Amino acid sequence: MTSTLLLVDAGMVAGFRRATLSLAQLHQALVHLHRQHPDVQVAVIADPSLKWDLAGPEQTAFEGDIVAQAIVCAPAGAFDGTAGFLERAAARARAAGTRVVAFTDRALSDVALGRLRNDGGRWLWDLDDTRTIDAAEAATAASAPARRRRRAR
Question: Could you give the domains of the chain?
Fold first, then answer.
């Protein structure tokens, strides 16, 4: 049986359908992930700037998550940024014979992208209905204008 590694983009989950990022939302979603899929390995990857997008008290909690190794930050200045870091992590895991599913809103080439949704407060992590895009499609998506996050009113 092949093991499965889930690469979770912390910023995407923390900002899922929200005007502002929420570390509490990320934590809730991860609890649901571990309940739904207890046998998978999970790596939560964050852009280092995520801390500054969080509210004051959550910044301290974010630092605690890093110290506890619950979240790993992509190195500042990483080649191709956080998306490149995710792609390289996926490639290394696949080379070791591990199935990889990423949950991100970034364009990653040759990485199976899972679907995440929130159904009335219950987070659903779909590992089976994945989509993989090739390098050309990822390059096109990466060069498209960035989507803007809704502003709080």
Answer: 4-141 (3.40.50.11980)
pTM: 0.84
Cα 77 from chain centroid (whole Å): 18
Predicted pLDDT of residue 76: 80
Tell me phi and psi for residue 131, to 5 degrees.
-135, 130
Query: The dihedral of CA 31, 32, 38, 43: what is its sign?
Result: negative
4 with 114: CB under 8 angstroms?
Answer: no
Burial class (CB in 10 A: 0-12, 13-18, 19+), 105: middle
Say if CB 105 and CB 82 are below 8 A apart.
no
Return the SS3 of 145. coil
